[in-house]
Amino acid sequence: MKKIGLAWQILIGLILGIVVGAIFYGNPAVATYLQPIGDIFLRLIKMIVIPIVVASLIVGVANVGDIKKLGRLGGKTIIYFEIITTIAIVVGLLVANVFHPGTGINMKSLEKTDIQSYVDTTNEVQHHSMIETVVNIVPKNIFESLSTGNMLPIIFFSVMFGLGVAAIGEKGKVVLQFFQGVSEAMFYVTNQIMKFAPFGVFALIGVTVSKFGVQSLIPLSKLVITVYGTMLFFVIVVLGAVARLVGVRIWHFIKILKDELILAYSTSSSETVLPKVMEKMEKFGCPKAITSFVIPTGYSFNLDGSTLYQALAAIFIAQLYGIDLSISQQISLLLVLMITSKGIAGVPGVSFVVLLATLGTVNIPIEGLAFIAGIDRILDMARTVVNVIGNSLAAVVMSKWEGQYNEQKAVKYIEEITQKSA
Questions:
Q1: Is 141 helix (H, G, I), strand (E, B) or coil?
Q2: Which of 74, 224, 267, 298 could pair covalently with 391 via S-S, beta carbons 3.0-4.6 A apart?
Q3: What span, in angstroms and rounded, lies between the C-alpha atoms of 398 and 30?
Q4: φ, ψ dihedrals at 273, nearest 5°
Q5: DSSP class per residue in 29-75
Q6: What's the whole-model pTM score?
Q7: CATH superfamily label, 6-421
Q8: Residue 401: C-alpha distances to residues 14, 292, 299, 396, 419 (Å)
Q9: Which sequence ranges are marked TM in the entry (predicted)?
């Protein structure tokens, strides 16, 4: 008998979770029993993310050992991220203007959700300027950054440490071997944790559906359909075109990452799949130095799905209130989103926080977010998938740009994946 693959196991967990959540809608017992299972799974993933990123980056950077090469890679990566996220914002604005998801919706039919926690978070981070964000990349205490999971300072320290290991030559080999061992051991641990994924997904989805109920989607179905349709368009057309430009196919990414995409969709968390995405992109022909730098950095600077959604949701709320934004106001919105989406990366509920920080600048009532907060989890699931595909593709683009992409390794890996799924 053929063993059921992980993707199918996660999908079964997802469907069973929806069924259980729908049957026991409004019953607090669901959260009482299932939430701990979901929390344990998320904690297991968070436990391994930082050791993998640190070890992989140190090994990758030490093997490159050239600060000029790394500086060039960093510069190219930021330019690419900025171009793609700007395209995502433009796509979001265009779709909202063409399809008008917020026009004609009776606001009285919508339920309001408390957004005070998001407002408090926004007030905390809103005074952060772009300069402060750049300053905060340099950690004052690396152990503090490690304990809080603040990714950008961790990446900065790991790069500097990797360069230091390379600079001391023979003496650094022992250190390099140690981190190579840590990296391999953590990838083994990741594979063991992934066996628990279907249970984690079942629990997290069950709790979500039992809280908001399937019927809460009906009044906002136009927004949900528009968001999902736009995300699909962005992946197939925009990211598909980028993939073609660098000589790969977007379907190959979806085939390679099918387990991770179902998991990211179910948990609404890019972090849950970071270790496996890095591992698979390495197998797909990207060098360790590039995957270990580009993918974690992308989690702060290249959230394509999130920025697309923010643009679409901002116009949706304006349409809900009957506010007609001029071209100049929409350009202003685009520029503000370009800055705010980078300035507060890593903040919990980042898409909501960015919207709260942005809407006021173009005179859209922030109270409108209370109407979509209840279904934000459903929308978050879609944008998380786009974020994962966008960051995976970025690793290939940078590898190609640097002339370090291994075509033979990629072809071989695709053949392996195809044989397994046959």
A1: coil
A2: 298
A3: 45
A4: -110, 0
A5: HHHHHHHHHHHHHHHHHHHHHHHHHHHHHHHHHHHH--HHHHHHHHH
A6: 0.89
A7: Sodium:dicarboxylate symporter (1.10.3860.10)
A8: 38, 16, 20, 8, 30
A9: 7-25, 45-65, 77-99, 151-169, 196-218, 224-246, 307-327, 334-357
